[in-house]
Amino acid sequence: METECCALAGTDYRPLLLRRRASRPQLKRDPLGRDDCDELHRHCVTHLHIPMLYVIVENFRGGDAVSVYRRFRDRGRLAPDGLKYHASWVTTDFRRCFQVMECDDPQLLHEWMENWRDLIDFDVIPVRTSADAVAAIGSRL
Questions:
Q1: What domains, with CATH codes, occur in the chain?
Q2: Cα end-to-end span (Å), the chain
Q3: Strands 52-60 and 120-127
Q4: pTM confidence score
């Protein structure tokens, strides 16, 4: 880990379970109390190679779920190695899908989305588990 690449250096950003397994202390600083959450995210995936969770909102172009599911049936998820699918939910009108994906390199998300951009518009939201959120803000509770 690089020690002075940003203001967040030196803080343990590994997911809660990894920190516990390694018998390391909980976060000493609260990254949620800072205005640089995007910097935190970039630091985690760029320098620490920590798997990050993402909620992917897929907006099917023209509301056309049939084309999306046809490609999925014929070619699969088209995800590169290292991009892990967790779960997904589709709206009852079949116009949007919400997925949880995980990877340690955001470039993998871009590669995957390029395979679908002709059919889907994407919103990508970096997220953390509730347990990690509690650990991050625990000192402020």
A1: 16-50+130-140 (no CATH), 52-127 (3.30.70.1060)
A2: 29
A3: antiparallel
A4: 0.65
Residue length of the chain: 141
Helix (H) or strand (E) holding 19: helix 16-21
The 10s digit of each residue's pLDDT in 101-116 is: 999 999 999 999 999 9
- The CA radius of gyration of the chain, in Å to the nearest whole number, is 17
pLDDT single digits (tens) 39-64:
555 555 555 567 899 999 999 999 99
Side by side, which strands form the sheet with 120-127? 84-90, 96-103, 52-60, 120-127
85 residue type, one letter: Y
What are the two backbone dihedrals, phi and then psi, of residue 82, each rounded to the nearest 5 degrees?
100, -15
In terms of Cα–Cα distance, which of 136, 124, 114 is closest to 40? 136
Nearest residue to 88 (alpha-carbon basis) of 67, 107, 60, 111: 60
Gap between the Cα atoms of 81 and 100, Å rounded: 16
The count of C-alpha atoms lying within 13 angstroms of the C-alpha of 137, restricted to the half-sphere facing its C-beta, is 10
Give the mean pLDDT of 69-92.
97
Average pLDDT over residues 106-134: 95
